[in-house]
Amino acid sequence: MNQLQSELKLARSLVVEKETETRGVRMTNNQYMEENERLRAILGEWSTRAAKLERALEAERMSKLELQKKLSTLKSTHR
User: Is the dihedral of CA 70, 72, 74, 76 positive or negative?
Assistant: First the structure.
């Protein structure tokens, strides 16, 4: 009987130990998930900024081309 009680006590302590480990892993996992969400939000913001900058750059290129065309036209008409 004492041996059974001893084994039961050991089994219960092992269960408690594993539950504690599991809680720790879950807490760590939750922290990683929160950090991933935060990093995804930052990445999304950077992507949005990059897209805006690319559109602005393309608009500048088009504006420059238009100005070059106008300048060429003006130069050719003044000759």
Answer: negative
- pTM listed for this prediction: 0.63
Report in angstroms the alpha-carbon separations of 11 from 51, 78, 79: 59, 99, 100
43: containing domain: 1-79
Q: Convert the pLDDT of each residue in 25-58 to its tens digit.
A: 999 999 999 999 999 999 999 999 999 999 999 9
| Residue recorded with tokens 């006590």 | 9
Radius of gyration of the chain (CA): 34
Run of H or E including 1: none
Q: Is 54 helix (H, G, I), strand (E, B) or coil?
A: helix
Domains contained in the chain, number: 1
pLDDT at residue 65 tops 80 = yes
